[in-house]
């Protein structure tokens, strides 16, 4: 795999203002800028954004030539594609074979249904019988958006952004597993890769959070920190205190991950079409509060993973993945060697 050219955090800009793509940024750059001191993550490998449907010809050229994006992880639902493409039926098409035709030609696009059928069934079970009947009737007669508005009002609005994310972790495991399998593929390396949903906020925030959690020092199975040589060295104890402050600034932290997530608030408003986020939530029946980021999103999701699975390693194992291998592959790919 030909790797993008590394840049320094003093020269790189973490965002590019496209004409028709909101909330775009290089995750590696945002983490490096926050951590400081030196490069921690490889830049030009992992990107995030809102939907790509409105990309202009100039946007598409910049996307492919300046950022050399190879793979897109589209996290949206079928309903979102229907809503956004009413006036542009060719923007996102399904071929007769069921394969995804990319919005930007030349990019390999994978549909990762974070809100998939298993999660939809879980939400349907939370409806009243009367509401469930209405949803079924709407779906039978092709009024999918009307059905989604009922679910949005009675379920999604009540459980909130964090609640939807934890439900996705529990009920959309097959899709999340598929995403990790793509990210660690040896036969078809996906990088540089971009993940996006509609706003690039919650589902995108969730998958980026899961990826970054794999890069935390606590997720590494490396024995270096507990090797006999380190414990037997008399000089290590005397130098540890002097190097502790610099070590903290030279690794990815939860604070850095929260910082990347928080940048979405400004990211949705930076694009000339930033006001479109209001229309997005209105189309799906969500309240205006769903436009904004949740300040406690990262800490709450991390707490859920820790309390139910023992952390990211336990969660990966629950998906049927080799957790140590996944973490090792992601760290080898996305972290800069010391």
Automatic annotation (TrEMBL):
The cross-references to PROSITE patterns, in alphabetical order and at most eight, read: TYR_PHOSPHATASE_2
Q: Which residues form the Tyrosine specific protein phosphatases domain?
A: 170-213
Stretches the record annotates as Disordered: 219-245
Protein name, per record: Tyrosine specific protein phosphatases domain-containing protein
Q: Does the keyword Transmembrane helix apply?
A: yes
Organism's domain of life? Eukaryota
**Which SUPFAM superfamilies does the record match to this protein?**
(Phosphotyrosine protein) phosphatases II (SSF52799)
Q: What is the lineage of its organism?
A: Eukaryota, Fungi, Dikarya, Ascomycota, Pezizomycotina
- What residues form the membrane-spanning segments? 122-143
- Note whether Hydrolase occurs among the keywords: no
Q: Which GO terms describe its molecular function?
A: phosphoprotein phosphatase activity
Q: What InterPro entries does its record include?
A: Prot-tyrosine_phosphatase-like, Tyr/Ser_Pase_IphP-type, Tyr_Pase_dom
Which UniProt keywords are listed?
A: Membrane, Transmembrane, Transmembrane helix
Record the organism.
Terfezia boudieri ATCC MYA-4762
């Amino acid at each position: 795999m030909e790797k993008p050219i590394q840049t320094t955090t003093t020269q790189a800009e973490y965002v590019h203002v496209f004409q028709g793509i909101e909330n775009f940024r290089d995750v590696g750059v945002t983490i490096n800028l926050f951590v400081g001191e030196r490069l921690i993550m490889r830049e030009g490998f992992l990107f995030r954004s809102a939907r790509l449907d409105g990309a202009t010809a100039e946007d598409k050229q910049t996307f492919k030539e300046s950022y050399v994006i190879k793979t897109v992880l589209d996290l949206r639902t079928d309903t979102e594609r229907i809503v956004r493409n009413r006036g542009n039926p060719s923007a996102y098409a399904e071929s007769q074979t069921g394969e995804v035709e990319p919005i930007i030609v030349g990019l390999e696009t994978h549909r990762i249904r974070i809100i998939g059928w298993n999660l939809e069934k879980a939400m349907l079970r939370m409806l009243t019988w009367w509401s469930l009947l209405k949803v079924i009737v709407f779906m039978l007669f092709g009024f999918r958006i009307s059905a989604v508005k009922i679910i949005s009002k009675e379920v999604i609005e009540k459980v909130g952004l964090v609640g939807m994310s934890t439900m996705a972790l529990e009920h959309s495991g097959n899709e999340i597993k598929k995403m990790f399998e793509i990210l660690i593929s040896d036969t078809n390396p996906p990088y540089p890769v971009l993940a996006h949903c509609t706003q690039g906020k919650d589902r995108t925030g969730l998958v980026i959070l899961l990826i970054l959690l794999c890069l935390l020092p606590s997720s590494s199975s490396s024995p270096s920190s507990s090797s006999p040589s380190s414990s037997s060295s008399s000089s290590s104890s005397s130098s540890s205190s002097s190097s502790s402050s610099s070590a903290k600034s030279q690794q990815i932290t939860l604070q850095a991950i929260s910082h990347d997530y928080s940048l979405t608030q400004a990211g949705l408003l930076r694009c000339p079409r930033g006001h479109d986020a209001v229309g997005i939530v209105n189309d799906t029946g969500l309240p205006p509060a769903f436009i904004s980021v949740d300040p406690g999103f990262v800490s709450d999701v991390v707490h859920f993973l820790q309390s139910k699975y023992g952390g990211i390693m336990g969660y990966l194992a629950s998906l049927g993945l080799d957790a140590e291998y996944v973490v090792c592959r992601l760290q080898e790919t996305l972290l800069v060697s010391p």
